[in-house]
Amino acid sequence: MTIIAETERLLLREMTEHDAENAYNLNIDPEVLKFTGDEPFDSVDAAKEFLKAYKHYEQYGFGRWAVILKSTGEYLGWCGLKYTPELDEFDLGYRLSKKHWGQGYATEASIVALKLGFNQFNMKQIVGRVMQGNTASSNVLKKVGMTFLENREDDGEIEEIYRLAKNTFEAL
């Protein structure tokens, strides 16, 4: 497993098919999925197939990374960057299991993901998308320095779009 980054409390590493059970358990919690628009995996095998087919690391050099608690080795969820070619946007995303909400892990992992995006992958700006009503995620994006840009409709849902430019991030 490739370690991508380390913070005081967390490790970010590439996800592999060995994370299938953790990914399955994360994505079967309706509260975790409430603001994502995603469907739960049907099985651990379905999660494994998804992870085996995940090619963002090979295509772009970055992706969504597993977030691991250093003190215990526990899988908390994922955080990372995604490129959406049809929008020509780099996106910050995260998803953590409910028992780890409210402890600053999403903010901590997001800051290191942004640093990687701007410094290692030379991104000029990164956006964050949050379904309207997801106050906790909106607050994370604001804490890491993103500012509200606009609302967009996506599959009948309203997304709040936040943005952070490299020069603004460096000034924080």
Short structural description:
By secondary structure, the chain is of the alpha+beta class.
Helical content stands at: 25-40%
**SSE order:** EEHHHHEEEHEHEEH
**Alpha carbon gap, first and last residue:** 32 Å
Biggest sheet: strand arrangement: 1-2-3-4-5-6-8-7
Radius of gyration: 15 Å
Strand content: 25-35%
Number of strands: 8
Q: Indicate the overall shape.
A: globular
Category from helices, strands and their pairing? alpha+beta
- Poorly predicted segments: none
Mean pLDDT over all positions: 94
Q: Please count the helical segments.
A: 7
Q: Mind describing the biggest β-sheet?
A: 8 strands, mixed
What does this structure look like?
The protein contains 7 helices and 8 strands, in the order E-E-H-H-H-H-E-E-E-H-E-H-E-E-H. The chain is an alpha+beta fold and 172 residues long. The longest helix has 16 residues, at 105-120. It is globular.
List keywords for this structure.
single chain, 172 residues, alpha+beta, 8-stranded mixed beta sheet, 7 helices, 8 strands
